[in-house]
Amino acid sequence: MIAGVGADTFNLQDLFVSEKDPEKGSDTLKGSEEKTEHAWHNCQHLFSLKSAGTLLSTICALPEIVLELIKKIIRTIAALFQARKEESPPKMDPDTLLLTCFKGLDMGETAERIRENLQGKILPITLHIKRKNLREIPPELGRLPLVELDLSENKFKEIPPDILSLAPHLTDLDLSSNMLESVPGWINIFRALTRFNLASNHLQHVLTQKVGTLNLLKYLNVEDNSIEELPDNFDSLLALEELLLDKNELERLPSTLCKCKELKQLLCSRNKLTKLPKNIGALKRLNFLKCSDNQISSLPPSLTTCEDLAYLNLSNNPLSDLPAGFEKLTGLTSLFLANDHLKSLPADFSPPNLAVLDLSGNLFEAFPAVLFKLKELRNLTLDQSQFNKWSAALKRLQDLNPLVKFFSPGTDSQQLFLH
Questions:
Q1: What is the pLDDT along the chain (419 residues), one digit of tens a residue?
Q2: Are residues 222 and 284 in the same domain?
Q3: In a domain, 272, yes or no
Q4: Which CATH number covers residue 266?
Q5: 137 and 48, same structural domain?
Q6: Domain limits for position 177
Q7: Per the domain annotation, does 88 fall within a domain?
Q8: What total number of domains does the chain contain?
Q9: Domain for residue 62, yes or no?
Q10: Same structural domain for residues 181 and 316?
Q11: Which of 66, 193, 205, 253 has minimal Cβ neighbours within 10 Å of its Cβ?
């Protein structure tokens, strides 16, 4: 049986693997000859089903366009096998074989016919072509009824315009780790996108407002670029759940971002942020907030009304104090405040379910007595100097809470023991 048949989508790479293939999805040359043989048998099986009188579209709803591609794959594999008989083994891995077969392919159906057939009759197709040093794609690829396209880790300097025809049905587009310098204005026609990954490119200055018109987006990743400003129309992204902004040059977050009521994860570490939006408390479903390594000196009071917040990382900021109201963060379990400028904690600092707390690298003048209130605390990270200076208070804390453990900061964190 062929992987993908009977599933919700059909991945073209599935032609190259068997159900028991442990290296499914591998794009290295290792095992490419065996994968080519899998493709040979899988493709033959598809057409034996069809030649036996069972219409293929009733089995896996593949459009004529894909059948033509599979026929070309068979012809190409046959040529590779012939070369092998002549003592020249095949060197073509699955993704390269797919790209080769796309070129010059007689697509059969028109784009209009494909769109017409897609109305519940054709199985959506996914395609992943990574790490191939691509600078362009075969124009024919843009005619496939793809719902998922992964072109990450290539060498694209611009988003290939040949994918424009995919707009009506493409829901997942991954262009991470390329050399993109901008996002074209025509990206707004991809209204079906729910996932858009632009991480690790060369994007600069202002992210185009056209991204803010993709109102079905649930996941947007633009981390590891040089973006200085986000558009102000984020209030249109009402379905957005995950926003990854780490490692950019952002100095502020637009206040309209706080109208993304479904937002659950916001990552904006290693930027140049000096503050968070005043109305961040409107993000009632936010459960993961990472703002470490910025220039944030104070926090908006509304932050303590983010009812679902479970993870909060504010390390490596010039924070001199925390707002009152942390006791209202009933879902907060992990809080990281390392290397800030804190001299004390608020008197009402008592998140009831806090289990992990990092206070290392701060300027505390005395042991924060509010730590005695943290009944669920399990891991407390402190500098060695803090640990030595506060040993008596920490012993009392451990007597009140025998499950608490102390750790040193850093990647080589070790447990500290009281003598």
A1: 333 444 455 566 555 544 444 444 443 334 455 555 555 555 555 444 444 333 334 334 455 556 666 666 666 656 655 555 555 544 545 555 555 555 554 444 444 444 454 444 445 677 777 777 778 877 767 767 778 888 999 999 999 888 888 888 899 999 999 999 999 999 999 999 999 999 999 999 888 888 988 999 999 999 999 999 999 998 899 999 999 999 999 999 999 999 999 999 999 999 999 999 999 999 999 999 999 999 999 999 999 999 899 999 999 999 999 999 999 999 999 999 999 999 999 999 999 999 999 999 999 989 999 999 999 999 999 999 899 999 999 999 999 999 999 999 987 778 888 87
A2: yes
A3: yes
A4: 3.80.10.10
A5: no
A6: 127-416
A7: yes
A8: 2
A9: yes
A10: yes
A11: 205
One-letter amino acid identity for 245? L
Residue 227 sits in the same domain as residue 263: yes
Backbone angles phi, psi at 36, to 5 degrees: -65, -40
What is the pTM (predicted TM-score) of this model?
0.80
Residues 49 and 160 in one domain: no
Q: Are 144 and 94 within one domain?
A: no
Is 167 inside a domain boundary? yes
**Do residues 356 and 211 both lie within one domain?**
yes
Angle at 158 between CA 126 and CA 182, to 5 degrees: 115
Cβ-contact 250, 228 below 8 angstroms: yes
- Greatest alpha-carbon pair distance for the chain in Å reads 83
* 358 and 217 part of one domain: yes
